[in-house]
């Protein structure tokens, strides 16, 4: 493209007060009004003309098509030093975008194309926290615009006019063109690349400054989104600037950064958030595979009894292993068919979720036949299990616990970790017999180490494993020796 | 936030008073439901001499629901995935309110000593564990040395 302006001094134009100046004299901030909404004037795109074009509020295609005619109405067109070389005042090389995402917040972005070696692309200012913001918002806005909701307000009260660029044909006549476009579908990433471009993004927070009028009502939705994002960001702005920390530049990371957790509503913006959701789903799935609840009637029908001396541990203590509160002689407890006992409220809260004894996993619901599986015991029906453990016949149909799952491996660990209470306890010589009646089960609150499994579900570990685990857990066992008798609670010694 | 249930207070007190050798669980001061956990790799396992960090959280309805536990230290194990999530039945469907932080951590330590590639969480690891156990164990050792030794 035309490079004959290479040696020209760069002229900067202020969109706020319409003044212009040389960049090497006053830099990129307006010397008149201190605005940062500025643009470097190039031969191919003079914002001074753009300004007028926009104010005419004409259809853009018309503007473009009748460009030469319209120049007559531009009082500044005669002052354009590059007029003869500027066949296309609507050059896409400059993009200026701005909006007020929230009251008191004004954002503007100007991007301009460099056409020659005389103008070095300005590296993105690491302090410019708005650059990624703009990129992200632009993407959001693009989607919003395509959905038929003009994201940018356009009103006569605006202090700074908005440059609304027309769409360009696919065969871009500006091969170096790399504009940052927010209104049209062919964005900066699908056009021909190779040209150098410079983006300037500025932002301003001012409580009562100009250009802070309510946004277009049609853009309300977008405004809300942006306002949320901005509010989230505001807290971190000062810190970001102070530390000169560049923000994430890719959209997902950026969104995740400002949203905090990477998820917003149903949308997920980061791998971490996705993993979190997967974790949640896994947990739900796993919970669903647990036994279902016992019926309220069955829970209510569970026998109660007063704790007597025979139910206390060797040290004269016992506790409910659900709440871990001490149980004293005379307290009322609820006894499950497996004869494990707990506070009524404690075990009731569990059984209404899962029909398993917290100690041995035996259910309380009748399981005699499929047709009765879900039927609670009627109040008049004789209890299936007497209160007296010594008299209680074993119901062969009652599943004493969770059977080993088919997928479990040879280690007896994953799906078959024995429950507390399913082991020989200190001072107790009788093992828990699978399928049999646990006459003197004494639950404990520690899991028997692997390698010493004598529980119903584990296969015999290899001698190597036994040795390994014995070594690992020997000291632990001795430490817990006293705890077994008092800590497990719920049963007598 | 409601008061900490007595059970959690008791469990924490007992964990402090009678720590399990090779395992530590320390609640955060500002969130007594959140524990920093360290588990020593079982001897004669590929994780021997490694110290593995985990995080443990007791949900609101604990002990009616299991604690949430995750490895923070990278570990090569067929039942632990790349995010540290653990495939252990008692943490999921086989949870019981009679289980405790202490028992769960012992179970996890036991799992380190007895990997189960037939019930994998990390499929690629489990596959390798089944196809070439020696190589997998060697990798587990290397990871332990690389990530779990200070």
From TrEMBL, chain A:
- Which stretches of sequence are listed as region Disordered? 44-67, 365-493
| Composition bias type Gly residues, residue spans | 481-493
| Record has Metal-binding as a keyword | yes
Domain RING-type as annotated: residue spans: 320-361
InterPro entries per the record?
A: RING_finger_E3_ligase, Znf_RING, Znf_RING/FYVE/PHD
| Matching PROSITE patterns | ZF_RING_2
Keywords in alphabetical order, please.
Metal-binding, Zinc, Zinc-finger
Q: Which SUPFAM superfamilies match?
A: RING/U-box (SSF57850)
Q: Where are the transmembrane segments?
A: none
Q: Does the keyword Metal-binding apply?
A: yes
Q: Where is the composition biased (Basic and acidic residues)?
A: 44-54
Q: What residue spans carry the Low complexity bias annotation?
A: 454-466
Q: List the protein's name.
A: RING-type domain-containing protein
Q: Which organism is it from?
A: Lepraria finkii
UniProtKB/TrEMBL annotation, chain B:
What organism, scientifically named, is this protein from?
Answer: Lepraria finkii
Protein family membership: Belongs to the ubiquitin-conjugating enzyme family.
Outline the extent of the UBC core domain.
Answer: 3-149
Instruction: Spell out where the chain crosses the membrane.
Output: none
Q: Note the Pfam families from the entry.
A: UQ_con
The positions making up the signal sequence are none
Task: Tell me which residues this entry annotates as catalytic.
Answer: 87
The UniProt entry, under InterPro entries, shows:
UBC (IPR000608), UBQ-conjugating_AS (IPR023313), UBQ-conjugating_enzyme/RWD (IPR016135)
**What's the name of the protein?**
UBC core domain-containing protein
Q: Which CDD domains is this protein grouped with?
A: UBCc_UBE2N
| Xref: SMART domains | UBCc
PANTHER family according to UniProt: UBIQUITIN-CONJUGATING ENZYME E2
Keywords, A to Z, come to: ATP-binding, Nucleotide-binding, Transferase, Ubl conjugation pathway
């Amino acid at each position: 493209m035309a490079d004959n302006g290479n040696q020209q001094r760069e002229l900067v134009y202020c969109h706020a007060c319409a003044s212009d100046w040389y960049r090497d004299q006053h830099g990129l901030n307006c010397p008149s009004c201190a605005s940062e909404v500025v643009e470097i004037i190039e031969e191919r795109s003079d914002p001074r003309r753009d300004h007028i074009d926009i104010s005419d509020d004409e259809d853009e295609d018309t503007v473009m098509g009748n460009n030469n005619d319209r120049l007559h109405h531009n009082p500044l067109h005669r002052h354009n030093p590059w007029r003869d070389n500027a066949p296309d005042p609507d050059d896409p090389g400059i993009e200026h975008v701005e909006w007020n995402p929230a009251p008191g917040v004004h954002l503007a972005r100007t991007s301009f194309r460099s056409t020659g070696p005389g103008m070095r692309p300005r590296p993105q200012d690491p302090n410019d926290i708005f650059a990624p913001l703009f990129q992200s918002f632009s993407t959001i806005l693009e989607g919003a615009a395509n959905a038929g909701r003009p994201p940018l307000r356009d009103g006569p009260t605006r202090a700074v006019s908005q440059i609304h660029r027309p769409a360009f044909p696919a065969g871009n006549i500006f091969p170096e063109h790399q504009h940052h476009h927010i209104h049209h579908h062919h964005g900066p990433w699908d056009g021909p690349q190779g040209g150098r471009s410079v983006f300037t993004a500025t932002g301003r927070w001012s409580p009562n400054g100009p250009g802070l009028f309510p946004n277009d009502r049609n853009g309300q939705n977008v405004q809300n989104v942006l306002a949320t994002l901005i509010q989230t960001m505001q807290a971190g702005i000062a810190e970001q600037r102070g530390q000169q920390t560049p923000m994430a530049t890719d959209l997902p990371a950026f969104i995740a950064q400002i949203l905090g957790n990477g998820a917003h509503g149903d949308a997920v913006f980061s791998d971490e958030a996705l993993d979190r959701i997967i974790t949640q789903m896994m947990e739900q799935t796993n919970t669903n595979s647990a036994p279902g609840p016992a019926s309220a009637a069955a829970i209510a029908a569970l026998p109660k009894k007063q704790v007597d001396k025979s139910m206390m541990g060797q040290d004269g203590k016992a506790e409910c292993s659900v709440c871990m509160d001490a149980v004293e002689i005379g307290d009322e407890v609820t006894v499950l068919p497996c004869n494990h006992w707990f506070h009524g409220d404690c075990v009731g809260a569990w059984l209404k979720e899962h029909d398993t004894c917290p100690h041995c996993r035996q259910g309380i619901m009748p399981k005699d036949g499929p047709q009765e599986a879900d039927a609670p015991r009627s109040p008049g029906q004789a209890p299936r299990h007497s209160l007296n453990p010594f008299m209680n016949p074993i119901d062969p149909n009652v599943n004493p616990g969770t059977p080993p799952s088919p997928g479990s491996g040879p280690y007896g660990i994953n799906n078959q970790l024995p429950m507390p209470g399913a082991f020989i306890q200190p001072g107790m010589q009788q093992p828990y017999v699978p399928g049999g009646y646990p006459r003197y089960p004494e639950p404990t609150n520690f899991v028997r180490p692997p390698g010493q499994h004598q529980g119903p579900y584990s296969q015999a570990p290899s001698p190597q494993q036994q040795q390994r685990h014995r070594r690992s857990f020997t000291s632990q066992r001795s430490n817990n020796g006293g705890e077994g008798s008092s800590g497990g609670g719920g049963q007598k010694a | 936030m409601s008061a900490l249930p007595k059970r959690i207070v008791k469990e924490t007190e007992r964990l402090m008073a009678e720590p399990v050798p090779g395992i530590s669980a320390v609640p955060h001061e500002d969130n007594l439901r959140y524990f920093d956990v360290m588990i020593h790799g079982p001897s004669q396992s590929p994780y021997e001499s490694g110290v593995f960090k985990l995080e443990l959280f007791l949900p609101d309805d604990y002990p009616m629901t299991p604690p949430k536990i995750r490895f923070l230290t990278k570990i090569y194990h067929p039942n632990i995935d790349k995010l540290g999530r653990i495939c252990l039945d008692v943490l999921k469907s086989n949870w019981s309110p009679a289980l405790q932080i202490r028992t769960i951590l012992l179970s996890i330590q036991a799992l380190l000593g007895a990997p189960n590639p037939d019930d994998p969480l990390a499929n690629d690891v489990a596959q390798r564990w089944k196809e070439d156990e020696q190589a997998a164990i060697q990798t587990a050792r290397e990871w332990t040395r690389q990530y779990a030794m200070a």
